[in-house]
Write a structure and sequence with these properties.
The complex is a heterodimer.
Chain A lengths: L7 H12 L2 E2 H11 L8 H14 L2 E5 L8 E5 L1 H37 L6 H6 L1
Antiparallel strand pairs in A: 1-3, 2-3
Chain B lengths: L1 H8 L4 H22 L4 H28 L8 H8 L17 H25 L17 H29 L9 H5 L10
Classes of the chains: A mainly alpha, B mainly alpha.
């Protein structure tokens, strides 16, 4: 079973399938759109990831009949959706933490700009 | 480009090719058709990305075939299990032998031969009249040479095992489990399904 956290391409593939079932080319295009062109998967990378996700039971394959030349399409399984939710929760927590840390650093910088005499206050008090 | 892609697909393991080959080719065709409308630079980037992706993918699939797990993408906590995938030690029913083992064993054999040659060269460089260098005693065996001997024995045992499995496969013994006499010769007289 694949363990969390997942890599960025895999996360994008899962997010692409979270909305609706898609076939290979549609996933490629959607990943490119979601990442604003920053991530462009090759077919080798895409199908390597799809095969592992299939193997781990995160996605399943089915045949699309209508207007798609019988192409194989992929959709999330309940386990895949659950794991994706866990990953998104983890990332949300991480983003919030990063925001808090950055805000704290910014606040300190602003304070020092207002009162430069505070530099070394902590060191003196510790001494 | 399509023929190059088809050729590179042959680098993948056959099972993978059977399952995804046609689909990958179709998706590549769609992507290529769209990219070909763009400039020369976009085409070049597209080709480089596809070739690199295929080579990397084929390597990963073969490594996974050997290691039995997702070796390259395994998280650190799983690396130990990936390197020692216990479940792969169970023999498959069709007696498959990983093709990559043959080159690996050849490399090991070559290393052993090189080590022996090196030892011979060292031995030849020493003067025979040197009183300090006598015949090699068992106590003078170093850890390295012991490991080499163990490795050689292991390789020999592996080769022997493979030869036995190969002979069994050639004999068709593994097909006996699928053999159904009533299907081949019809219902047996006096049997439960007989007249």
């Amino acid at each position: 079973m694949r363990s969390l956290p997942v890599t960025e391409p895999v996360l994008l593939i899962l997010l692409s399938l979270a909305e609706q079932p898609r076939h290979g080319y549609s996933i490629l295009k959607d990943v490119q759109e979601m990442s604003n062109g920053q991530v462009t998967l090759s077919t080798g990378t895409l199908y390597g990831a799809l095969r592992r996700l299939l193997q781990d039971g995160w996605i399943e394959r089915f045949e699309e009949n209508r207007a798609s030349r019988g192409r194989q399409a992929y959709r999330l399984t309940p386990a895949g959706r659950r794991n994706l939710q866990l990953e998104v929760t983890r990332l949300t927590h991480l983003t919030r933490l990063a925001g808090l840390r950055l805000a704290r650093v910014d606040r300190c910088a602003v304070t020092l700009e207002i009162n430069p005499n505070l530099v070394g206050v902590n060191r003196e008090s510790e001494a | 480009m399509l023929s190059l892609y088809r050729f590179l697909l042959r680098l993948y393991p056959p099972a993978y090719r059977d399952e995804f080959g046609a689909e990958m080719l179709a998706v590549f065709g769609d992507a290529q058709a769209e990219t070909w409308k763009k400039g020369v630079l976009a085409r070049g980037v597209f080709c480089a990305r596809e070739v690199a992706g295929l080579l990397r993918g084929a390597l990963v699939e073969h490594l996974q075939g050997i290691a039995g797990s997702d070796l390259l993408t395994a998280s650190r906590s799983r690396i130990r299990l990936s390197i020692f995938p216990l479940r792969r030690f169970t023999m498959r029913s069709e007696f498959r032998f990983p093709k990559a083992t043959a080159p690996l064993m050849a490399i090991i054999l070559a290393l052993i031969v090189v080590a022996i040659e090196k030892a011979k060269a060292i031995q030849a460089s020493l003067p025979h009249t040197n009183p300090h260098v006598g015949p090699i005693q068992p106590a003078q065996f170093t850890l390295f040479s012991t490991l080499l001997v163990v490795l050689a024995i292991t390789c020999a045992a592996g080769l022997l095992g493979w030869a036995i499995l190969f002979a069994l496969r050639r004999s068709g013994l593994h097909r006996l489990s699928e053999f159904n006499p009533s299907e081949r010769f019809g219902p047996l007289a006096g049997g439960p399904h007989g007249p």
